[in-house]
Design goal:
Elements: E1 2-3, E2 24-25, E3 51-53, E4 59-62, E5 68-70, E6 85-86
Length: 88
């Protein structure tokens, strides 16, 4: 299993690094103890009409996949900054 920091899909390393850029690797059978901790999961999934606050402090309405409406007058840009907190 490979774990990456939140918001990353890969890790960059200098060209001469021995690391492959896949992040941290966990080998469950190697005898080294580890634990997973759920940091935040306030809801099972988003439903159309859900209102959320993002990590940047903006409020959004979820209208479906790729359909986000910000409550302020600023452009939506790439959408909300994760993680999200359900407001209603």
């Amino acid at each position: 299993m490979t774990a990456l920091r939140r918001g990353l899909s890969y890790r960059e390393f200098p060209d001469d690094s021995h690391l492959d850029g896949s992040g941290y690797t966990i080998h469950p059978g190697d005898g080294i103890p580890f634990a997973f901790e759920l940091l935040m999961r306030p809801y099972a999934s988003l439903q159309v009409g859900d209102e959320v606050a993002d990590a940047a402090g903006r409020a959004w309405r979820f209208g479906g996949p790729w359909d986000w409406t910000a409550f302020d007058d600023e452009p939506a840009g790439a959408g909300p900054a994760w993680p999200l907190i359900l407001l209603t």
